[in-house]
Design a protein that fits this description.
mainly alpha
Length: about 230
């Protein structure tokens, strides 16, 4: 065998290795070309889902704040405000220290500081007089309604909590629609007895609305501050 020259078998093996390396580089480049858009889309999708989850949480926090005040107004209209309810209101308002509910928080705190005798005289004066009505309002959660893709990026227990909140908001809306039908009947010709029944139904609607609003607020408060992803 001549010096300085590799055996034929070794020269062939070396050439095959370089061919395999080149082939692997080409295949890897091809795969990256195919997978890169998928990877980018996956990252973008995760970011969008995270933003969607944060937006839903923010929306529910704001809705909770609004519904605490709405529940207070409904109980006030029904004339059924009592000390346990005001304690619940005060607790929920402490959890959402917003300037929007500052005046309500001050009023509730002052009422709770009254002794039982003064409180008993004050509470019945809050009811709406017969023949009058304070309108109940819809307070939707459009992001919770529309961001289905984000909803399903929460873990399953969190999904169930959100769906339960969504269901109770729908029940709250149904009470509003029922109330508005009773309210419409107050403008129609009715016998005195029917007018009394309609007025009683309106007051019951206030109580039902307040009860359901409290349920929604409590469900929102029970959501974990973080996690669920």
């Amino acid at each position: 065998m001549s010096r300085g020259r590799l055996p034929q078998a070794l020269r062939t093996t070396g050439g095959s290795s370089r061919l395999v390396e080149k082939s692997l580089v080409l295949i890897l480049g091809w795969l990256l070309g195919i997978l890169s858009p998928l990877i980018v889309d996956g990252i973008r999708g995760r970011r969008e889902a995270a933003r969607g989850r944060n937006a839903i949480r923010a929306e529910l926090a704001e809705l909770s704040e609004v519904l605490v005040a709405a529940a207070f107004q409904a109980r006030k209209a029904a004339g059924t405000i009592d000390r346990p309810f005001l304690q619940w209101v005060a607790k929920r308002l402490r959890e959402v220290p917003s300037p929007k509910v500052g005046s309500l928080h001050a009023a509730v705190t002052a009422a709770l500081q009254a002794d039982d005798e003064d409180f008993a005289r004050w509470a019945p004066t809050l009811g709406v007089a017969r023949g009058k009505a304070s309108m109940l309002q819809h307070y939707p959660a459009p992001l919770l309604d529309s961001r289905v893709s984000a909803l399903w990026t929460f873990d399953f227990p969190y999904q169930r909590k959100l769906l339960d909140i969504h269901k109770n908001i729908a029940l709250l809306d149904a009470i509003v629609e029922q109330f508005r039908e009773y309210f419409r009947l107050t403008f129609t010709q009715q016998s005195p007895g029917n007018h009394v029944l309609i007025a009683d139904n309106l007051r019951q609607s206030y109580e039902n609305y307040a009860e359901r609003a409290c349920i929604v607020v409590d469900r929102i408060a029970a959501l974990p501050a973080k996690g669920g992803a």
